[in-house]
Specification:
This protein is an alpha/beta fold and 202 residues long. It has one domain: Class I glutamine amidotransferase (GATase) domain (Rossmann fold), CATH 3.40.50.880. 36% of the residues lie in helices and 21% in strands. The strands form three sheets. Strands 5-2-1-6-7-11-10-12 form an eight-stranded mixed sheet, with helices on both faces. Helix 2 links the parallel strand 6 and strand 7. The longest helix has 16 residues. The radius of gyration is 15 Å and the shape is globular. 47% of the residues are buried.
């Protein structure tokens, strides 16, 4: 069973965390088992943007490993860019994960943790200038909704993050499992507007 850790924090986008959560949970219904855990600084309630209250299941110190690490964006991401404890944890967990999925302004956190250095990535168009400041060593693929660069998968927001999650099911399970999941979600897949390693190669 693959373990999926989803980072949550006050001000996280409920939509951006729900997209991969729903995808991996539905993949389990189709025979591809994933353990999904919400991870936060502590076990206190997290309030997402819009007021949704979340109950984390693991903390930064109690999640020993995850196969897939998801870093959703949200208006609360900016306030964490100087949070060294969280960023140090994110750097370790992101490098040890089999796959790292970042959506929207979650790319800012990944960039601040050094996880985008030397990699191709994307983010929501409103965050591109800020991401250039935070992670000048990253190559930003403007106009691409979804970019895969090795273990790193970046998406512009919740919709692209849903497609990215289905792509990770293909990578970690099988193409058939991904196709069944896309059908369950009524999702057109593979998505248009995606860039993968082969397309990015010179």
């Amino acid at each position: 069973m693959k373990r999926v850790g989803i980072l949550v924090y006050d001000g996280v986008s409920a939509l951006e965390l729900a997209s991969p959560l729903e995808a991996f949970a539905r993949a389990g219904e189709n025979g591809a088992a994933f353990e999904i855990l919400l991870v936060a600084e502590d076990l206190g309630a997290v309030v997402a943007a819009g007021g949704l209250r979340l109950a984390p299941q693991r903390t930064l110190t109690t999640l020993s490993h995850c196969d897939v690490l998801v870093v959703p964006g949200g208006p609360g991401a900016e306030s964490l860019l100087e949070h060294r404890v969280l960023l140090n944890w994110l750097a370790r967990a992101g490098r040890n994960a089999e796959a790292l999925l970042v959506t929207g302004s979650g790319a800012l956190l990944a960039g601040a943790a050094g996880l985008l250095d030397g990699r191709r990535a994307t983010t929501h168009w409103t965050e591109l200038p800020r991401l250039r400041e935070i992670s000048p060593a990253a190559t930003l693929a403007e106009g691409a909704e979804l970019v895969e660069d090795g273990a790193l998968v970046s998406a512009t927001g919740a919709a692209a993050g849903l497609s990215a999650s289905v792509g990770l099911v293909e990578r970690l399970v099988t193409r058939d499992a991904a196709r069944r999941l896309a059908r369950t979600l009524d999702l057109s897949w593979p998505p248009e507007g995606a860039e993968d390693d082969e397309e990015a190669a010179p």
